[in-house]
Amino acid sequence: MEAASGDKKQKGSEEKAGTSLFHHRLAQRMLLNPKKEKDKEDGGEEEEEEMKFLLHRLIVIGRISPELADKRDVGGHYEKLSQHLQRRYHADAFTGLLLLYPSHLVHIVESSSEVLVAILRDLQGMQANPHSALIVEPRVLVVSHDLRSRLFQDWSYKVLDLPATTLTDRRNREPIETLVSGTLKLILKLGSHLLKTRKDSDPSAQPLLEQVPELIVPQDVLGQLLERGELLTPQQYLQAYHTPLNVCLNSGHTFGSVCPNTV
């Protein structure tokens, strides 16, 4: 009986110690506050204690559904989602910016990995129901891990009344790496500008985005990025995120795996 109990306990321990990127991030998070995990295992009352978390940034681009009468519905959807996630992960602040173009969008979110995964799952749900989706063809532009600080102090959305910039044919031939890098640079410059300006200016002044139209990613650049096949969909990213890292290779035994192969 004791041996069976021990085997069961060992099996449960192995199941708990997952090997995906998600589990590695979770292990890092637990290292920052091991006391909470211990209290949780002991059944103590400290389980609700605020837990430190690693800060990550997700940038998603996509098309706004052409059937959507009011683009502000997208902003309203994420306002409700952010409130829900704040209640569920009360220690994980949800900050960022949602830019709504005439037909495209850019969404920047800074929070914990759990919150970012929840946002991607929400987008995955939209992909599964395209007829009722607010966003079509969402793609993950970049995910940045372990940030030192935030660019955004809160979450907000802005409906942009900007014409699409027409690019030259030369731009159309640029590789995906150049397009992604240029887009990311503009987004980070915009975030840095908003952070600095909000600290130094009156909140009632002219809307900040209208002051720096040169820092807004052109809408046709977003269209070009979405036409490429290199960017992952939310479903593809989540599949990779939850895939074990210690996969077995045909050439031999991967260190740490439990399924060795003969060379």
Number of domains: 1
Number of helices: 10
Weakly predicted, low-confidence segments: 7-17, 36-41, 43-51
Q: Identify the CATH class.
A: Alpha Beta
Report how far the terminal alpha carbons are from each other. Answer: 40 Å
Gross geometry: globular
- How big is the Rg? 22 Å
CATH architecture: 2-Layer Sandwich
Q: How many runs of DSSP E, i.e. beta strands?
A: 5
Average predicted confidence as pLDDT: 77
Helical amount: 40-55%
Main β-sheet description: 5 strands, mixed
Please provide the ordered H/E string of secondary-structure elements: HHHEHEEHEEHHHHH
- For the biggest β-sheet, the strand order reads 4-1-3-2-5
> What is the CATH fold-level name?
Alpha-Beta Plaits
| Protein structure class | alpha+beta
How much of the residues is beta strand, in percent? Answer: 5-15%
Walk me through the topology:
Layout: H1 2-16, H2 21-32, H3 34-42, E1 56-64, H4 72-88, E2 95-100, E3 104-111, H5 113-128, E4 135-144, E5 155-159, H6 169-172, H7 176-200, H8 208-211, H9 219-227, H10 234-241
Parallel strand pairs: 2-5
Antiparallel strand pairs: 1-3, 1-4, 2-3
GO molecular function: blue light photoreceptor activity; FAD binding
Pfam families: TEX47
InterPro entries: BLUF_domain, TEX47-like
